[in-house]
Amino acid sequence: MKAHGIEKQTSTPYRPQQNGVAERANRTLVEMARSMLHAQNLKKSLWAEAVVNAAYTRNRCPSRALPSITPEEAWSGRKPCISHMRVFGCIPYAMVPDEKRGKLDGKGTKCLFLEYCQGTKAYRLMCVQSKKIIRCRDVEFIEDNTSVGNDLAMHPSGRNQTPNAVIVDTSSKSPCVDDDAEEDPSNEEATPTPGCSSTPSKDASTNGEWQTLKERR
To answer: How far apart, in whole angstroms, are the C-alpha atoms of residue 50 and residue 60?
Structure first.
């Protein structure tokens, strides 16, 4: 380091403000990891995989310090490929090798995508059924949802998406009409429906009294 003019300096104990660049980078990674865990409704025990995935993504994004290139390009000298990148926490189906399955067994197993393997062209997955970490190259991703443990379908937003149900009353009957009265027209003493008045109104009784007075005269 001295040959390149680099001098090592240490910060004062309990004073992280003296190493502001590293502290801001740590905060960025932690916030990214927290967002990914909550967005996919995953457990906090996967925080290490989320941080590694956040650092992998951050190194392939432009920053204010390097506006024209990415940190990975500045380090390796070549433009990185991002076509293999997938949504953290999505559901992939890893292909089961022919040597580990029978003729009638399924060709794929349901997993949870965690991160990218370093030094090999494979994905690091967790099998949902056995909870074991596996590495696989032949993977089919379903990035629009995640289902962990109890097969609860979750969108990347982390919220349950239930279909909108509209209940429509198809009955065209009046609420004051009794079914028995409609079926039997001869039944004059039908039981009145609750909520519907069967007593004569005040105007009707008044008209009856007026007609009685006319007949007496």
So the answer is: 16
Radius of gyration of the chain (CA): 36
- Tell how strand 123-127 and strand 133-136 pair up: antiparallel
pLDDT of residue 171: 44
pLDDT tens track for 92-128: 999 998 888 888 888 899 999 999 998 888 999 999 8
What separation in angstroms does the CA of 64 have from each of 70, 84, 145?
Answer: 10, 25, 32
Please indicate, yes or no, whether the overall pTM of this predicted structure exceeds 0.85: no
Determine the Cα–Cα distance for residues 113 and 81; give it in Å rounded to an integer: 19
Give how far Cα 149 sits from Cα of 38, 123, 124, 127, 131, Å.
Answer: 16, 20, 18, 10, 10
φ, ψ (nearest 5 deg) of residue 156: -60, -20
- In sequence order, the β-bridge partners of residue 141 are 92
